[in-house]
Design goal:
- This protein has 213 residues and is mostly helical.
- The protein has 2 domains: 107 residues; 103 residues, no CATH class.
- Helix content is 77%, strand content 0%.
- The chain is built from 7 helices and no strands.
- The radius of gyration is 23 Å and the shape is extended.
């Protein structure tokens, strides 16, 4: 629905040279449909590999229990190889989906390919390492609204991308929107922790996080 409305409104008045209103709306609609198809394919593959990984792990657990009851040696190498294969495919699909998000989101800030390459390179080298470190340290458990703020920032970028079909939005405004939303989520998390600490309650939310090892 959002795509159709955007194609009719923003798309019909897109700031591009040549073409009628109908041609511009058709271009926006086709691009949006292609994006939706790509998202559905990546999401479907991710869900498929995740389900296969869970099935392999369950089967491995069942065969290990059966081998223990029968007193037979376990074929752990074969089972672990299958589980690792599906884990590899699952992680590759997830990484591809995050790469799509990063590249598309970069267009909301700038169309300069050099700046986009630099930003995504920094993200790949530093931000990902920082993210893994924060997850292992349990930072998302302490600041529970950070994840929400990140999703709000992604939603704001999506809206900005739709609006920029017709209107030019300064990159500074685009960048500040994400900073403000994440900063607000961090401040809300700090206030929540202080309030819970004042009430004598732990401020962390228990979650089933995997071991760093």
């Amino acid at each position: 629905v959002v795509l159709l409305i955007s194609a009719i409104t923003f798309g019909a008045h897109a700031h591009q040279h040549g073409g009628t209103h109908a041609d511009k709306a058709e271009t926006v609609l086709l691009a949006g449909i292609a994006g939706l198809i790509t998202y559905m394919i990546v999401g479907g593959l991710s869900g498929y590999f995740e389900d296969k990984l869970e099935e392999e792990e369950e089967r491995e657990h069942e065969e290990e229990e059966a081998a223990e009851r029968a007193g037979k040696p376990k074929s752990a190498v074969k089972l672990a190889g299958k589980a690792a294969f599906f884990m590899f495919l699952y992680l590759e699909v997830l990484d591809a989906s995050f790469s799509f998000d990063g590249v598309i989101g970069a267009f909301a800030i700038t169309n300069d390919i050099v700046l986009m390459a630099l930003g995504l390179g920094i993200g790949a080298m530093y931000v990902r390492s920082l993210t893994v470190y924060l997850v292992r340290q349990g930072t998302l458990d302490d600041y529970v609204y950070l994840e929400h703020g990140a999703h709000y920032a992604i939603g704001a970028l999506a809206v900005i991308l739709l609006v920029t079909i017709q209107y030019q939005i300064n990159e500074i405004i685009t960048g500040l929107v994400g900073v403000v939303l994440i900063g607000a989520s961090f401040w809300s998390s700090v206030r929540r922790n202080k309030r819970l600490t004042g009430n004598g309650r732990p401020h962390t939310t228990p979650r089933n996080t995997p071991s760093p090892n």
